[in-house]
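User: Could you go from structure to sequence for me? I need the amino acid at each position, not a summary. Structure tokens:
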């Protein structure tokens, strides 16, 4: 079986490729810039193509029996608008099994996937633990994280666990027609995560909660655009309770509990050290 992995050079995609190769699967990696696709295993076939331009995907889909598809594209994570065309091409190429990295329920892509006739599974990670790497620079320098809305809680998941779920579904099946919300084993606040980073690095690291106005002043000083500032404040002020919900998806699919944030930090501690 040849598996086509879209987003293969991204944070999750690299893990998916690794897991599939470990399982003995032939892997084809799709990227818009194949000449810049470094760090993938030598036996992975790298092909060019753009999900927003379906006519570029014919060669990539040829001979593929399983597909991992991104549900959003670009730096702004805009929902994929070419789902109907891609699904038609995948079915014609002989793809049988499909995982979709979902950005939520509803939308044109979800409808096209459900109508495709393929064996599909939506994978919806609540939040990647690797997003905390966005703190790495300030923690290395100032040993302090300063953010508003300290009470918000998320059941973040190790991206490697999500990759295990994707690879298992693609190679073994058994979860067709399901939307799997994938979480870690606990819901943590930003302060909880900072405390775990401090413990893993052996450093004293502070978390300081900002008011909205303090955040605005600091982010403006850092050069943030006004619309970006207001977007982040609104997003953090309205974090839904569902992102704190712990699910059993990793254990249901992979057969083991998901890794904790402390385990993830232990493996990435050097990123937070000066």
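Assistant: Here is the amino acid at each position, in order:
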């Amino acid at each position: 079986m040849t598996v086509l992995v879209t987003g293969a050079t991204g944070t999750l995609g690299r893990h998916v490729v690794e897991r599939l190769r470990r399982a003995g699967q032939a892997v084809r990696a799709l990227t818009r810039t194949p000449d810049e696709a470094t760090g993938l295993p030598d036996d992975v076939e790298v092909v060019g193509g753009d999900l927003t331009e379906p006519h570029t995907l014919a060669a990539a889909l040829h001979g593929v029996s399983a597909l991992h598809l991104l549900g959003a594209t670009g730096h702004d994570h805009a929902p994929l608008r070419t789902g109907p065309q891609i699904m038609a091409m995948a079915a014609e190429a002989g793809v049988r099994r499909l995982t979709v990295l979902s950005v939520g329920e509803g939308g044109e892509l979800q409808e096209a996937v459900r109508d495709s006739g393929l064996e599909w599974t939506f994978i919806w990670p609540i939040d990647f633990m690797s997003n905390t790497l966005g703190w790495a620079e300030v923690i290395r320098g100032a040993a302090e994280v300063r953010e508003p809305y300290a009470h918000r809680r998320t059941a973040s998941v190790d991206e490697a666990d999500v990759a295990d779920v994707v690879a298992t579904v693609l190679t073994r099946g058994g979860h067709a027609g399901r939307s799997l919300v994938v979480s870690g084993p606990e819901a943590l606040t930003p302060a909880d995560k900072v405390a775990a980073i401090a413990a893993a690095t052996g450093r004293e690291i502070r978390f300081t909660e900002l008011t909205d106005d303090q955040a605005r002043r600091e982010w403006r000083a850092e050069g943030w655009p006004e619309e970006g500032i207001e977007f982040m404040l609104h997003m953090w002020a309205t974090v839904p309770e569902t992102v704190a919900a712990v699910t059993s998806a990793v254990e249901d699919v992979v057969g083991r509990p998901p890794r904790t944030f402390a385990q993830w930090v232990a493996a990435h501690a050097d990123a937070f050290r000066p």
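One structural detail worth keeping in mind: Residues 159-172 form the longest helix (14 residues).
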